[in-house]
Protein 1
Amino acid sequence: MQRRKNVTRRQFIKGAIGTTAAFTIVPRHVLGGPGQTPPSETFGGALIGCGGRGNGTFNAMGLEAEKLAICDVKFVGRTDNKMVYSDFRKVLERKDIDVVAIATPPHWHALISIAAMEAGKDVLCEKPMTRFIAEGRAVADAEKRYNRIFQVGTFGRFGASGNEGNVQTHKIIKSGLLKECKVVYIKRGGFKVKEWSGMVNATPQPVPKSLDWDMYVGPSPMKPYHRHRTGGTHRGYWDYEGGGLADMGQHYFDPFQWIYAKDDASPVEIEAYAPPAHPEACGMWGWVEMTYADGLTLVFDSGEWGKPYDRKEPRGVSMSDLDEESRKKVEAMPDPEPLVNFAEAVKTRKRAGGNADAAHRCATLMHLANVAIRTGRKLQYDPVKEEVVGDEEANRLVNQPMRAPWHL
Amino acid sequence: MAKRSSSIATLVDRLPDPDENGMLTNIDKEVVDSVISEIHKGGRNSIRRLIDMLVEPGSGDDVKPRYALHCLAVYVCKLDDNGQQRRFAKALASQLGGDRPKAVQGYLVRQLQVAGGQEVAGTLGELLHDEALCEYAAQALVAIGDGAAEQLRKALPQARGKCRLAIVQNLGVVRDRESVDALKRAVLGDDREVRLAAAWSLANIGDIGSVDILLKAADAQDSYERIKATKACLLLAEKLLAAGSKAEAVKIYTHLRDTRTDPDQQYIRDAAKNGLAGARVK
């Protein structure tokens, strides 16, 4: 099949269907069904959220995608609804757009990802995937319901899964043959806690004429405008993200999740050492200790507040932790399938390595940590029901109400 | 009273000051915990005094009392004492609906979202017609859960504008079956946002009698509304299937499979086919 450039996949499809000769040689697989490769590798793309991460996220798709639309709530007064938009809903109505890169603040990630998949688009979404836990499950449900490609915008697992030692660790844990998992994984520093804290004394400012503030706030509680709530420093507010912890965590723990075979699991116990949190501004915390059902301990140690974590020492896992029979079984296990990147996933319809389920379980780590910080309580978590056990108020942060008309 | 007021002010003043960037980076956990514990001992009067210190954003410095009130909300949740928590929530609720600035009342509602329970549902329900507070009130009600449906249902007939939208949507969140008829009327209304919210609500409720009305909505227009109404149909089908109403679910899937013939709608056909496969229908 000859490769066509400068024609979007959907334009090509329309052309093919309108041409009998072409139609005879371009059957159903032009639609890129499961296991099929579309004849054109040029895709119609849209970028939603055009701040600092916008172009980087769009380019991270790794596709020959023609940027047909850009959209941002700060484009008020300069939209033409052909190339430049301020309302993502109008972008998603376009049939010539196949793939959408989302680089808005995180409180919009889940809703736009879901809406894009409902409109038949594939999605690459900037990290962190979500603002709270229930959003992640809703994205994963949409990914399955519409059989679309979703990839979160962090790629650490792709490198990690190519490392021989990591593969062995993955297989040991995945095998379930460890009688007791004594792994203690401690991530010290790098959480940008102070850098991405919020202001507690911000006084309202006039909304810039170029900004649709109501649309910016979207599903989050309406608050008066202050520039610190936008433009990157939005990270410091619970309404839009979850501080440096949420912002950096998905980078750090995306490879962890793969290496330690935790893509379908979450911790069962979470304890935080932190001062009482502010209701709106993300702030200081010392450390968070999480324990999985198999015994693995995961620790975030900020190094920016209070005493450092000193309960346990880091510990890995090796074949020597297994008995002879178990070692043989692990050695006989096949290596895991190579992870599929976004571009390959879009073309082949195979599931992406950083798919919605995996990304959601990773984002859940940071959300659970923040729930423990915000409630000041030790939490028991049910990874199947995805709710905190016996703590109604903590669950109000697991599944947060949204401002209408936005809902999961 | 004057002595107690000044004592609260002294306590609150011990809370940390923002740093030069407006952030609470210099925070001492022991000091904050001790201050909040002391304020709590003062009971309802202390809470009232704290609320008196809140001002409209931009009209004064209330950083410390705001922080204190939220810490108190979290603190009473930690006590594992429903009585204490209820008393705190009632003290906050007693300050709603009066002539305090709306922004201050909004802040109190958000603290009820943290620590309130059924005991404040009625007070929150009374705010559902207040343009400035209805969104916060609706969010607090659904977070609380108990008593929310009754309040939302009661407020719907007189609600207008964004309050009506918030109520229609949240009736779906709490899955209030008693509101099905009202929601069906809303699906046929003039306001697009309300139509979409009502369609989703009926789907999330899993109302078996809404199949035809949702399918009609999904066929209506080739636009974002069509996309969202189609989602409502698929959601309803999943709910119905899970509830054992297979025939109605199959009706939805079959309709979508047979009517979405445009190549761009292949993914909807596929979703419908998957649904039918799940229902084991060829």
Protein 2
Amino acid sequence: MAADIAAGLAGHHAVAPGTDLTEYYFERGWTDGLPVVPPTPEKVAAFVDALGGDPDLLEGKVAPRWGLLTREILAVNAVMAGCLPAHAPVLRAALAALMDPAFNLNGVQATTHMAAPLVIVNGPIAREIGMNGGANAFGPGNRANATIGRAIRLVLLNVGGAHPPDLDKCTLGNPAKYSYAVCENEAQSPFAPHHVEHGWKPEDSTVFAMAAEAPHSVTDHQCNDPEGILDTICSAMSTIASNNAVLSGHCAVALGLEHARTIARHGWTRHDIRHYLWMHSGNAFRLISRDHRYGRVYNRNLPKWYGRDPDSRIPIVPSPDNIHLFVLGGDAGRFSAFIPGWGHMNTPVVKPVFAGTAAPAGPDCAGGVCAI
Amino acid sequence: MLQNVDDSRAFVFDPRGRVESAEAPLAPRPGTLDGLRLGVLDNSKWNANKLLRGAAAALGAEIGFAEVHYYVQHSFSKDADPALIARIVTECDIVLTAIGDCGSCCSCCVRDSVALERLGVPAACIITTEFVEETGLTRAAIGMPGLRPVVIDHPVSSITAEEVAARVAQITGQAQAVWLGRG
């Protein structure tokens, strides 16, 4: 590994005719542990074409190895993951979001925490390439979701060098580190899409990326009003065990369709939901500080403006704007999910899928990138 | 068959991509530590402040520093703000930073130290035993394999005052060796 880094080996390797490529990639440690699709010159060339040609064009550098992600290298990993050329624009936008300095990929890759980059796609491209935001959205069975998420992981492993246990120091890992890409269920959602809430046009396609834990299930088969359902989600949010509880930052909520429809029937908006969740979740400082049982606690990782009295409320994230709300899932089932983030060390990033898409005017957008 | 290499294409694609990092030298080392300005960079990880204040006091008992400055890096899993690094470079001759006792904080501590070394300030970066391998790979990846870390016992974040004192004792000799380029 160290020798690989020092030598910066890359390119094409000579092999004997008849070599079994699936086993060859396993032997080199160039997989996520599953068999890869051997990247033939024809498939790689087709994917490079879908990225706009120019195989040597540099899309960015991938931390913490800082390997050069050229279009050809991106295509090689995408083909290995099973991606189709049609997936190229979403994959490229997702990786651009991860490589944005606000995302702090270096930290996300190296951390002992189980955070994995969560990618959620909005806009027409998700439908066009057949992504799934409906039933079993976070589960298996959809090629676009599965292979785009897997291609991201292969790039993080192969180009970013984040192989456990060397540069990826994750204590436990997380199944979402294999693949964690979905789209919002815009067609069935009773609310405007997430990207429209953030000022993009409905016809724009965007990729949202956040370092995240796996989804935590929120079961509520009883409540038939917004307050009741959202109180249940607040219960899932108000643990002292998540990074958000002690490190602030951002989090996401996947609001299931049945819950979303019930809430919408009462006239609530996304804004109302996020503010309710923020206002009614959190912990008393006495829980965060363990009543100072292990020494006086201030916790410099929480905002200065929080109170530190025993009963001071410590919000899960500093603002309702740090709760990212997506409507996801299938028609049946009164389930939602809370998705904790990594903490203040990661800022979620939204990128347009296609160059030339006008970013919303606002203080947090610059150069076509919105750090939210 | 796509699964096998046929006679006409006896090569495979390496998916890793090249690395372009020129190897940078360490900052010049001073002949003595007496009379120098020490910068202490606290990355705000749990117990980093106790560890660093203890280490600065112990070092101050052995060395006649001209000044000691204390800085706090408010996100232990991010690189320090370049403006903070620039300020430290103008105010200090050597730096002690901690603590690299997790994956991301270790990486960022090392990266901050490399940034300081590139600007001419010898930097002793305190990491724990669990992260020695990661530190080596990080230093290689960002082009300063010669930067030695100060290695203390893992863990740091959940230890008692007595255990902090024991870690401080591990720091003093190693930090001086790093600053002076000895050993």
